[in-house]
Amino acid sequence: MGLNPSNTADSVNRLMQELAKLPGIGPKSAQRLTYHLLRTQKEQVTALAEAMMALKNSTRLCSVCCNIADSELCPICRNDSRDKTTICVVEQPQDILALEHSGIYKGLYHVLHGAISPTEGVGVTDIRLEELMERLKAGGITEVILATNPTLEGEQTAMYLNKMILPLGIRVTRLARGLPFGTELEYADDVTLSRALEGRQELK
């Protein structure tokens, strides 16, 4: 059911309409958020607006791993304590947050920004595959962990990556099957992710 603008001030209705476009925010949630912001101090609303503008104006992709960054390198690529011989390949930046929260993985990442999906018109040139292959060909990497989502698209992407990486003589592993098929990495709990990482299996 959509929002009814007829009895609402234009500025209020405009914000409700925009909030309702966000994932997971329906008309009722958009209404509650809007009226919450109306009751909030102007300074807090200004801070929120500035944070959103900074998100769009100040962020970029890390020149190494394609994660979200505020400078040329993301915090993980700048961290000298990380294991620089291992790369964990994920579909989206938010997948890194889930894996980092588990506290198990200490290596580097590579963000594809998507998965191969012929039905949706997403091919190998539409994801950050070329950047990954350049990193691997530069040397120093001994293992690539494929942490694409356990979905049809994620499996297709993992199989293609495995085919591309194996000729380089690099060990390729896949997260263990503790992750239910059809789920997304960012919604998995810490225990499940930890077991999936620890039980990862080598692909041939």
List keywords for this structure.
2 domains, 5-stranded mixed β-sheet, 8 helices, alpha/beta, 204 residues, Dna Topoisomerase Vi A Subunit, Chain: A, domain 2
Molecular structure report:
α1 packs across α2 and α5 crosses α8. A 5-stranded mixed β-sheet has the order 4-3-5-6-7. It has a two-stranded antiparallel ribbon with strand order 1-2. The chain starts with 9 loop residues before the first helix and ends with a strand. It is elongated, with a radius of gyration of 20 Å. It is 42% helix and 13% strand. α7 links the parallel β5 and β6. The protein folds into 2 domains: 49 residues, Orthogonal Bundle (Helicase, Ruva Protein, domain 3), CATH 1.10.8.420; 142 residues, 3-Layer(aba) Sandwich (Dna Topoisomerase Vi A Subunit, Chain: A, domain 2). It has 8 helices and 7 strands, in the order αααββαβαβαβαβαβ.
Name the CATH class of the largest domain: Alpha Beta
Question: Are there runs of 5+ residues with pLDDT below 50, and where?
Answer: none
Strand order of the largest sheet: 4-3-5-6-7
User: What would you report as the Rg, rounded to the nearest angstrom?
Assistant: 20 Å
Major sheet attributes: 5 strands, mixed
DSSP summary, beta strand count: 7
> Can you give the mean pLDDT?
88
SS-based structural class? alpha/beta
Number of helices: 8
Q: How would you spell out the order of helices and strands?
A: HHHEEHEHEHEHEHE
Indicate the topology.
Blueprint: H1 10-19, H2 27-39, H3 42-58, E1 60-61, E2 68-69, H4 75-78, E3 83-90, H5 93-102, E4 107-111, H6 129-137, E5 143-146, H7 152-165, E6 171-174, H8 190-198, E7 201-202
Helix pairs in contact: 1-2, 5-8
